[in-house]
Amino acid sequence: MTTVAPIFLTLSAILGGIIVAALAWPGIGLVARNRRRRVNAGRIQREDALKHLCNTEAGGRRPTLHSLAGALNIKPDNTGALLRDMDQKGFVSFASGELALTPKGRSEGLQVIRAHRLWECHLAEETGIHATGWHARAERREHWMSPAEVDALSAQLGNPTHDPHGDPIPTAGGDLAKDGGEALNALVPGRAARVVHIEDEPANLYAQLAALNLRPGMRVEIRDKNEERIRFSADGAEHEITPILAHQIEVLPLPETEVGEGVETLASYQPGERATVLGLARGSHGSERRRLLDLGFVAGTAVEVEMVSPSGEPTAYMVRGTVIALHREQAGLLLVKSAEALKS
Amino acid sequence: MSTSILEPAPAAACAACSTYRAARLKKLGLDLQASDFVIALAGNPNTGKSTVFNALTGLRQHTGNWPGKTVARAEGGYEFGGKRFKLVDLPGTYSLMAGSPDEEIARDFILFGEPEVTVVVVDASRLERNLNLALQVLEITDRVVVCFNLIDEARRRGLEVDTRCLSRDLGVPVVATSARFGEGMPELLQAIDDVAAGRFVCQPHRLENQPQDLKSAIATVASQLLAVHPGLPNGRWVAMQLLDGDESIAAALRSGELGQMERVEVPTATDSTANTTVIDAPPSVEAIEKILQTADSLRRQVGTQFHERIVEAIYADAARLADRAVTRPGAKQYFDFDRTIDRVVTSRVWGFPVMVLLFALMFWLTISGANVPSRWLAALLLDTVYPMLQHFTAQMGWPWWLRGLTVDGMYLATAWVVSVMLPPMAIFFPLFTLLEDLGYLPRVAFNMDGLFKKAGAHGKQAMTMMMGFGCNAAGVVATRIIDSPRERLIAIITNNFSLCNGRWPTQILIAALFIGALVPAPAAGLISALAVMSVAGLGVVLTFVASWALSRTALKGEPSIFSLELPPYRPPRILQTIYTSLIERTLIVLWRAVVFALPAGAVIWLSANVHFGGVSVAEYVIHFLNPLGVLIGLNGVILLAYIIAIPANEIVIPVVLMMTVLITKTAGLGRGAGVMFEMQSHPQLLSLLHAGGWTLLTAVNLMLFSLVHNPCSTTIYTIYKETRSAKWTAMAALMPLALGFVLTFAVAQVWRLFVH
User: Fold this and answer.
1) Following CA atoms A108, A110, A112, A114 in sequence, which dihedral angle do they give, to the nearest 10 degrees?
2) What pTM value is reported for the model?
3) Smallest CA–CA distance from B636 into chain A, residue
4) Of B367, B413, B654, B669, most Cβ neighbours within 10 A?
C-alpha cells in the first residue's frame, strides 16, 4: 500500500494542529508560560526570602545568610547576591550590622504570607483538596495574587482570622497576631491542651501528621512520654509519635475547668446506642462543618444510631426527629458522650 | 392550564366546612401580571413546601419525597378576596446561615426581595428541627405566617399539637394544614391575607438566650446600625451576620441596599411618626465603615466559635418552643412504622435482594409494557400518517425535493424517535416517580453509598444511573439531588454509561442477528439477552471505573460534602404522580428530542440526495470515514450513522440500513435514497449487512460503541444547562467518545490477532 487514506491525513493534521497550539498559543501556550516563568523567577525568589525573614522575625529568631540559603534551597554565594539586590531595592538593610527587614520589606513579606494563608483557607473551605496538598499549592499561588485579589479572596472567605493550620492571617494593614503556643513535647502528661498550630514544613513530617488526622483545635492530652516515643490522645483517638514529630505540633494548655475525660466520637457508636453531642471537632472545615451544624448536630443534641448501610457506609442517625446518614469521617468529627454516662 | 382535573379528592372536605372562603380562591397558575402582594414560601427540605405551593397556585411543581427538590425558584399566582398574590417557592434549606447557594437564594429573597409575607412551612412531627429555620426567618422579617404542615402525619404518630400556644410564642399566625389533602388551606389563605393587609400585626419572637458575650457584641453593632438606619426592621440579625463575617451583608450595607429596607418597611409600619425617615439622606460612607470596623474588631474578640454558638442558641430556643407546643401522649418520639420497614429494606440480608427485585420488576414492566404501544405508534406514524403525508404533499404539487426534505427527512426521523422513545419513557418515569414519592429511593442511595464512596462518588448516583437507563438527559437533570459539587459532576459526566432506552433497540437487534445466531436456535434468545445484559453491565462497571478515575484526577479539587436524609415513608398519590412525571420528565425530554430530530432528518435526506459528480454526499463521507471505521472494527456507514444520530440514538439502525442499501446498490430494498426504513425479516437483514461487509467483529464492536460514545445532543445540551461550564460539557462529551475508540480499536486488534 503506497497511499495513506485521506481520513488519517486529516486526523494527523488535526492532532498536529492541537500540539502546535498547545506549544505556541500566545499567552497560554507552553512557550509563553516558560518565558513568563523565567521573567518572574527573580521576583518569586525575593518574595520567598522576605517571607522567610518575616517568619523568623515573628518567631523571635535571628535570620542569617545560612538560614536563608537553607530556606530557599540555594547556595550561600547566590544568597549574597540576592540580599545585595534586596538591599538596593530597600527591602532589607544591614544598617544595624545585622540582616534586618525594612518596614517596606516587612509589609511586602506579610502580604505574601497573607496571600499564602488565605489561599490555604480557600483550599480547605472551598475545594476538596486533601490537607497534604494545601501548602505546596499555596506556595505557588502566593506569588500570583495582587493585593486587590487577596482582599477579595479574604472577603469571599468571610475574613478569616486563622488559616487551617492555626496560623494567624496578617490583616490587610499588615498586622500579625501571635498565639503563644508551646511544642507538644513540653506538655505535662495528664494536662489537656488545644492544638493551635501544626507546622507544615518540612512536607514529609507534615504528611505523617496529616495521616494521623491531627488538626488545629483538637483536644490533646499526653498519656505517657519517654526519649523515643510520645503517646497522646487527640479527640479520643490514641497516637504514638517521635519527639521530632511532636515538635511540629504547637499546643496551648487548656484551663483546668475545660479538661474533660471520656470524650469519644460518634464513629465509635453501634446501632441502638445513644449519645449526646458535646460539639464539633475543630478539625472540621468550611461547608462540611456548617452542614453538620445545620443538620442539628449541636452541643446537647441527643443522637441515636439507627442502622448501618449493607455496603458498610454510611450510618444513619436519628437526630432531632429526622434520620440522617453520615460517612464515618463525618461521624468522627462529632465529639459525643454516652447518653447514659451523661445522666449519671 | 386546567386545574380541576386531578385535584386531590379530600379538597371537598374543606369546601364543606368553609365554602365561602374557598370560593374566594382563584388559582392563577403562571398568570403573574400585576400582583398586589408578593408571598415567599420558605421551609426545610421535605416538609411538603412544594405541595403547599401547588395547592395554592394550581401549578404542578414536581414534588418528590426527596430533600432538596426545588432547586431554582418557582413562581406562581393566586387570587384571594379580590387581591392578587404572587407566590415564590424558595429552595428548601435547613438554615439561612450556612452560605450554600440554595440558602443564599432563599435568604436574599426574604431579605431583599421584599415579600409582603413570608410563609414558613414546618413539618409538624419534626417541629424542633424546623423551628430552627422559622426562628431565623423571624429574625430577618416580622411579617411571617407559619404553615404547620403534615398535620395528618403528626396525628398518625400520636403527637398533640397546640398551634395557639406556638402562635403566641412566635408572635405570628400559625395555621395547621395538610396540603396534600387540602386541609387548612382556607385558613392559611386567610392568615396570609390578614398579615399582608396589616390586619394581623406580628410581634415576632426574637432570640433571647445567646451567651452573654455574644449578646453584648450583637447589641453594640446593632445599636450603631440603628443609629444610622433607624427604620431597619432586623438590626440585630444584620449585626449577627456582620459578626459572622458575612461579606455579602457588609456589601449590601455599603451599597445602601440594606438601607432601602427601612423605607420599604416604613409606609406599612403602624406608627405614623416613622414616616419622617422616608426623606432622610442616605448615611455617610464613614458611618457605615465605622460600623463595619466595630464589627470586625468585635469579631476577633468573640472568637472563631461565633457561628457555632449562635446556631446552638437558636436550636436551644427551638427545642424549648417545640416542647411547649407539641406533646407526645404516646411518649414515643421515634417512628416504629418507618423503622420496621427500614430494618428490612436496608438490612444486610434483604437490602440488596429487595432492591434488585424492585428494579428488575420495573425494567420488565417497562420493556414488556412498551412493546405494544410502540408498535401502535409505529403503525400510526410510520405506516399510516407517513403515506398520507406523501400522498397529500404530492396532491398539493410540492416539488420532489421539498417533499423529500420535509416528509421523508424531517417527519420520518421525528416519527421514528417518538415511536421508539415515548412508550418506554411513559412507563418508566411514572414507575420511578412512584418509588421516589414513596421514599424508597433515598434508601437505595443509603444501601449503595458504600460502593459509590469507594469510587469517589455519592450514593445518590445510584438513582441518577437508574434514571439514565431511561434517558441520559433525564438522568443528568436528576443529579440535582446530589448536593455535593464534586459528586454531582461525577454523576453528570458518567451518566452516559447507563445504556439509555434509545440504545436498547440497537443492542437487542444486533445481538439477536449476530450473537444469537452463534448458538442453536433454542438457546439463541437467552444468549442474545445475556449479551445485551453484559453490555449494560459493562456500562455499570465503566461508571464505577470512570467515577474513580475522575475523582482522583480531573475533579480532585472540587469540593465535596455528604449528608443523606432518609425521609419518612409517605403513601404515593398515584394519579398525580403519573400526571407530573408525564409533564415533568417524559414530555420535556421528548420535546427536546423532537427539536433535535427535525434537523437531523433533514441532514439524512440531504446527504443521500445531494450529488456531486453522480456520487451522493453520504457516499463521499462513507468512503472517507471507512478506513478509520475498519481500523476500529466498524465501517464508514456506522461512523456516519453515529455522526448523523448525535441528535437521537434511536435512528442509528434505520440510518445504517438505508446507507448500506445506498452503498451496496442493493435493488428492491428500502424506500429510496435518504428514506429510513426497518426490516422485519432477520435473514434478509443479515444478508444485507453481510453484503455491506459486516462480520461478527463489526457486530460486537457496534454493541460496544453504542454503549461507549458521546452522549446524544439532548444530553449534551442538558449537561451544559446543568453545569454551566463548557469545560465539563466537553469533558462529558469527548471522554466517552475517546474511550469508545480506544475500546473498539483494542478489541479489533486482539480479534484480528487471534480470530483471523
Assistant:
1) -140
2) 0.74
3) A7
4) B413
